[in-house]
């Protein structure tokens, strides 16, 4: 009876039109006041605990990293690299949009951010070469959902916090399903492209592919820092989020220079002598290799007694110097300029750029664009944390009334097994995902279904991936599919047209959901191999 009253109150407030966070918090307070033996002081304790939850502290920093990586320059570089990789296939520009969404998902952890950053550029590009607006919008709406499946994922952090499982294992578990989902969407696009005779981009050679990778490299290296740092034992997922935020700010302001006072300032200028540019570029490659080597070797070899920090640094310096010398000698030979002369002429370019960065350091950190980006990230954080805090209060109320245990006993009593249970979970989440924001829904549903899953022998990491994939589909199903509204906003199309455009590709994700649900190894193989199985106390 208590469960019916509690869920009935939530649904009533939702249908009235109150925001999700208020519905959950108000329902919990009213229920505790009038129907429960629990004390109202538990409300304050639960809300305070949400702000003190160590795992949830990762969310604000991942959102901040996403805000800085959502600048147009990063997205454009990813799209160019994706086009260079797969654009020469039939329907290649559409496939490149999916690939760009996959890469950006690994930087942002957010589906709406992926849709906005990639969709704003990719949809316009697809329209220019002859794709229909509906086709382009449907692809981006669906591919954008990969933002919560490919790690790092904010929704995975929420699930880990709600069920007390490992964030690291959840991130690993999302790698194979994320690549598989993107591959299935790209395969579907290729089939449609062959049928409709959609255009293909010209293959411009491996040189273009390498240039695209080089331009996008500093952004993509964020993936290495996050995943390598976590699994190399350098820092926890929460600490990784802080590092990701700092790295994103530095890259956006001082390396890519897409915003702030250095915006538009290129590292080299047309007035620089060709030999100076060669010398500068060569030393850039050498320094970049050294930095990448130091980070990668630290993640991989920090526990080795033989390979100390000093030895790693010496190896990195030698290899970086060799790379720089090879590049300068190769390029400088065409200019008939000596190797030493090229490097010497390139030093003033370094000096000029360091001077620019020193003068622009504080104006960049406290400038208008930076403040606006941080404010946008803060607004998103407050909105999401408000929903999560109230959802945790609701979950506390459920636990206090022993509702999850009662549901577990009922389902086991009527003969549910793991197969039928997962069907029920998928149906519940697909329906709930149509009406609620993913993080809030997860915090409510996870504490209820988690004990049942453990009783039936379902792996907790596998269950988490199933729930995340359901949240993906919920973001592109009406009436509250967030990606649909975002896509409608950036294209100017009506919501009904966006829904119609997205539906054919939603079918691909439904097939993917079935595969993920009933082939557990897709989710568990990687975390088992690297970190071992999740042990639930």
Automatic annotation (TrEMBL):
Quaternary structure, from the entry: The complex comprises the extracytoplasmic solute receptor protein and the two transmembrane proteins.
Organism: Marinomonas gallaica
Keywords: Cell inner membrane, Cell membrane, Membrane, Transmembrane, Transmembrane helix, Transport
The name this protein goes by in its record: TRAP transporter large permease protein
Location of the TRAP C4-dicarboxylate transport system permease DctM subunit domain: 7-259, 368-521
A GO CC annotation given for this chain: plasma membrane
Function: Part of the tripartite ATP-independent periplasmic (TRAP) transport system.
Main localization category: membrane
GO biological-process terms attached to the record: C4-dicarboxylate transport
Similarity comment: Belongs to the TRAP transporter large permease family.
Compartments, as annotated in UniProt: Cell inner membrane
GO molecular-function terms, A-Z: transmembrane transporter activity
Its membrane topology: Multi-pass membrane protein
Transmembrane portions of the chain: 6-35, 95-123, 135-159, 171-195, 216-234, 240-257, 278-301, 307-328, 381-398, 410-432, 439-458, 464-486, 498-519
